[in-house]
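By way of example, what follows is a protein record of this kind.
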Amino acid sequence: MDYKSIRNLPTMFFDQAERLGDRPFLWNKRENQWQSRSWAQTADEVAALARGLLAMGVAPGDRIGLVSENRPEWLIADIAIMSVGGITVPAYITNSTDDHHYLWCDSGAKGIIVSTPALAKEALPAAQKCPDTEFAICLDAPGDIPDQGLQAITWADCVARGADRDEDIRALAKVPERGDTCCLIYTSGTGGRPKGVMLSHGAILCNAMGAEDVISCLPGYRSPGEVFLSFLPLSHSYEHMAGQFFPISIGAEIYYAESLEKLVANIAEVRPTIMTAVPRLYEMIHGRIQRGLESQSSLKRKLFAKAVELGRKKYENPGSLSLGEKLLDALLDRLVRAKVAQRFGGRLKAFVSGGAPLNYDVGIFFVSLGLRLLQGYGQTESAPVISVNRYELNRIETVGPPMKDVEVRIAEDGEILARGEMLMNGYWNNPRATAETIVDGWLHTGDIGIFDDNGYLVITDRKKDIIVNSGGDNISPQRVEGMLTVEPEIGQAMVYGDRRPHLVGLIVPDDEFAASWGKEHDRATDLETLIGDADFVKAIGKAIDRVNAKLTAPERVRRFMLAVEGFTIDNEMLTPSLKIRRHIIKEKYGAPLDGLYRG
């Protein structure tokens, strides 16, 4: 596909729909069976909803919120909004009413689209309080939610309102220009206040072009003909591009997973050819495979371990296998690796990992089992991919070379800078933050890195004080730490969670609280003794629970450890004062964090 000649995203979709017609496109489970929508049927549904939006008064530039689990209607709504010149504002289904209220008010959303009654209970009350929000379109009846000036109608009613309109939506969809903002994706900033990233049609098309440049080199690549399984939130820029618009651009089929709990079963049913995911998925699969081995025979466990061992050796030291090891490795291809491949459907060409740093050992585990895993790197501000590994040379310890038509350079202080059409148009209503992030046309990523001898980018550190967990969530540690230290039981707090599935905390209890608690419970009153008291640890845990109740799921501290002034590790002073530095904890606790007290 000639990506550079495409005017905008909805035009690309309608052109593909006209070309592919009755071929299956979108799949989801209905009545416990996978059922499909064709390209032509989906295009008709997009046009019908677009006319309904016009009947609701949506005009070019209007922002429309979208709250839904991954399903065909997500894509239909997104493209319908863009077709009439609107701007989609995706929201996570885990958002609270307060979270939604901030998004709708900050973006000035004219209306919202929400899927289920359960999601409507959080999204609609927030919309009712926003002066600019006039309507809500619900896939189903929204339930018992007071009107309070907000016009709430069903999806079917919206379509019916537009049924008599005669606008040619395909022609209307050609109006937005390539550089126009098509979506407003909110991401966390260093202060914990979400910023709306304005992404253009061209930015996402640039990313899709780079993605095809990478994927088209895979053995057996077909366009059309690839099969994607979508399960990451479509409200995340990674899935929005890689799991929706990139598949559209290559004429692929998209299956929508039922749930995370059913993901493994869905993989076996769908047999995807390409899967995009965050490192947390690979960690979960790695753990599940390891637990499954416990019930296998001793021989099977030994064969599996040998396959991993030889696979790792081949990767880390090419050409190092002896003749005997080569013969054994070929046998393990049939006895172990072929069976593992079948567990993933048997036709998977590549896993693509992004959204957060991939643990090297987890990556090597998959590669050693014959599963191709390509790690990439980027940010929402870059739509989102900047670089990704290649089939021809896959280096798990790197994030690959820059994507096609993307420039990357390393600043004097080591910061990674990126430039290209994939860059955002800026932060919504935040010119100051925009000017700080994009300087002279270069995106300042806040990450530190180097290029290796192959021209592959290696991330070595973070310049900005943001935690990116293994699920790809950006978390402001200052916000969480500040809330923890407000509690009377806690004197100092530090949280850590880069590349981890959850946050952990190092907590210094408040001296006065400790002394008071010790007297009340007839225990010692010095911290050195109390941090070993299980009941005292539980008391601190209750304070952490209070804070967790006010935080979003990724921000919650799942485990913690207590420390005092002068606390030592390996006979080295942890800190000369109560102030705990994050880099010290990262060095000392990077691997064994799972040994902390459970919170």
